[in-house]
Amino acid sequence: MTTPVIPETEAGGLLTIDLAAITSNYTFLRKKAGASECAAVVKADAYGLGAESVAKTLWDAGARTFFVALPCEARIVRAAAPDAVIYILSGLTPGASAILWDMNARPVLGSVAEIDEWATFCRSNNLDGDAAIHVDTGMNRLGLPLDEAGAIAGRVVEGTLGFKPALVMSHLACADEPGHAHNLRQLDAFTAIRDRFPGVPASLANSAATLTGGDYLFDLSRPGIALYGGNPIPALENPMQPVIRLQARIVQIRPARAGETVGYGATQTLRRPSTLAIVSIGYADGLLRSAGASDTGKGTDAVIAGRRCPFVGRVSMDLSAVDITDLPAGAIKRGDYATIIGDGIGIDDVARAAGTIGYEVLTSLGPRFKRTYMS
Fold it and tell me: Can 31 be counted among the known catalytic residues?
């Protein structure tokens, strides 16, 4: 995905992406992975931060294996990291085998139909096409049921599958809760099925399981959200470095009287004479509508002139209101910036205010910011 370059004078705000922090986070996770290879998940345009720049950065940091969701994403990563191993998590689109082969991307095969189609393509072209086998151990999303996975394992051992799998993998449903009983059930199921694929590398750990470590690591871990500064295990302190700083331009400063309401729906009534900063960010930019405030619930905050200030009223498409009544007179002016993420406000803080997760905050970031990459 190519994000248009917007000059600051034409943008509603500034999005700064710290590539050095991504490198630091990858290095930290690679150490946590121990003897397991540490791959990198760069799907969804590297969680909204730009797959081309992020993949180049991670390659330079030592990542050699990348995971994306779709073939169109694989093309971008292939251009950024020509020698990388790239897996496509969403599987094999019917008729797309030749396309994936030409771009040197490996499908993650999660059904017998996908496996048979890939095997037929490989046999027809006398190719030993690398691919991953995805086994469902309790997610009920993608992947072979355990009985079908066992049958496929038998074909691998017999040498009748039509290709040699390069990886067998599964995905944890509750890794962000390390004590959840479902994790051990999935680990036991995956360990058992993995043993039926002798000599095939195995992968189970996402970001949270990479931090948990131990038996979850297997041969390859594949962190995603942790690379981008999100907290993989919400119950614990976040060990990752923040990666983004998001600032929105203040387009107007206005007084408002006590008893007046702010924003669409008149959902919040001012309890005192107030000064409002109207900032150029809304749900069209990825600041979720649910991050706004009302008389019955607090919204997210912004840092303005060094102080944390609350949002008031609903977030609209292009604009939001922030209460700056407690700032000293003259502390800010039209054209200054409010920090939406940064200065102590993390992506998970905004997510909590909006009733969602940091993944959605990152992947929702829109194209109307001036993007700057720091290395």
Answer: no
